[in-house]
Design brief:
By secondary structure, the chain is mainly alpha-helical. It has one domain: UDP-galactose 4-epimerase, domain 1. Helix content is 44%, strand content 0%. The chain is built from 2 helices and no strands. It has helices spanning 14-20, 28-41. It is extended.
Length: 48
């Protein structure tokens, strides 16, 4: 971890659901797979 990085981060989307009617379209496993796929295809991140 880098200095200043948050040690742990949790998110609870229940407030967004309650006030905005927002619901996630995919689960954690699908999000992780999508992130891995993107990172594998873009090993240097965003390049301009």
């Amino acid at each position: 971890r880098r200095p200043g990085d948050v040690p742990t981060c949790y998110a609870d989307p229940s407030r967004a659901a309650e006030f905005l009617g927002w619901r996630a379209r995919c689960g954690l496993e699908e999000m992780c797979a999508d992130l891995w796929r993107w990172q594998s295809m873009n090993p240097h991140g965003y390049e301009v």
